[in-house]
Amino acid sequence: MVKHFRVPGRLAIRMAELDVPVSAVLRRAGLPRDLFEQVRVLVTTDELFALWRAIEGVSADPLIGLKLGVETKTGRFHPMAIAALSTPNFKAAVEHMARYKKLTAPEEILSGIKGEEFSVGFRWLLAVDGEPQALTDYCFSWMLTIARHGTGTGLKPVRAEYVHARPQLRAIGRTLGCEVVDGAARNVIVFRAADATAPFVTRNAELLDLLAPQFEEQLKQYREEDSFLELVRSAVQDRLTGRRPSIDVVSDALHLSPRTLQRRLQESGSSYQRVLDEARHQMARYYLGNSGLELNETAYLLGFEDPNSFGRAFRVWEGVTPSNWRETHRAATP
């Protein structure tokens, strides 16, 4: 399974337009300050959730997720969205995007027509915790953006359903233009079945045919990149035995020069330091959740100079101390 998301660069642009300081968000999320300057913005599920929780925390606007999902400039659309808008209707567009997500991210877009309604929901396959509310809002708003661009109308959903309580139900309803309920079984945005099958004014069979080969090549490239990152991460983890493996050691194990390894990681939207952090993070969760190792032993095995350095790094990753994370995990696990 693919384990990373590629965050659209337009997100940083929209944050700046809505007066949400990108640097403050990245700092609060514990993400690299040059994240949006990378060739491809690549994050894990935990990092994606941390990013959206940071957006919630930095922004004073409870509707920030809904506003970030609105886009009027088609020039900023991801190729996936452009291809989706070239399909016959909204239902086909959602199915097109669902296929793309299935192949490029640990996420599913779930949709279906039942009676007079067409529902769209999102499932985060590697999530440990529930998704941030702003992320759910963003997904709902983005789907509405696609529907309105495709149909060329200001169509409104029938209903938005949230699992958790939302104190701003009326404000959300005014923004989306529909009824909003919480306490639902799942997070879904519901449209009329007629809107799902109404022809797209943006339909362009020629463009879709033109984009298809590029689309398939991009999917292939994404799979190859993720496989390469997994290969590097595994090489790092194999050498996390009481010392911090250098890029020279890992590149030698992969029969690459350090320069080539750095270049390929950058092309994949990552860096050696980032892969090292991800490898340490994964192993830290494993050691804390599945072994009787003491914290200082875990810090040693992960190549940290001392337990305090490990504790600081773990708080950046998880937002809590290693001991608190372990206690919470043990309490939640029978």
Automatic annotation (TrEMBL):
<dbReference type="Pfam" id="PF12833">
    <property type="entry name" value="HTH_18"/>
</dbReference>
<dbReference type="GO" id="GO:0003700">
    <property type="term" value="F:DNA-binding transcription factor activity"/>
</dbReference>
<dbReference type="GO" id="GO:0000976">
    <property type="term" value="F:transcription cis-regulatory region binding"/>
</dbReference>
<keyword id="KW-0804">Transcription</keyword>
<keyword id="KW-0805">Transcription regulation</keyword>
<dbReference type="GO" id="GO:0005829">
    <property type="term" value="C:cytosol"/>
</dbReference>
<dbReference type="InterPro" id="IPR009057">
    <property type="entry name" value="Homeodomain-like_sf"/>
</dbReference>
<feature type="domain" description="HTH araC/xylS-type">
    <location>
        <begin position="230"/>
        <end position="328"/>
    </location>
</feature>
<dbReference type="InterPro" id="IPR032687">
    <property type="entry name" value="AraC-type_N"/>
</dbReference>
<dbReference type="InterPro" id="IPR018060">
    <property type="entry name" value="HTH_AraC"/>
</dbReference>
<keyword id="KW-0238">DNA-binding</keyword>
<dbReference type="Pfam" id="PF12625">
    <property type="entry name" value="Arabinose_bd"/>
</dbReference>
<protein>
    <submittedName>
        <fullName>Transcriptional regulator, AraC family</fullName>
    </submittedName>
</protein>
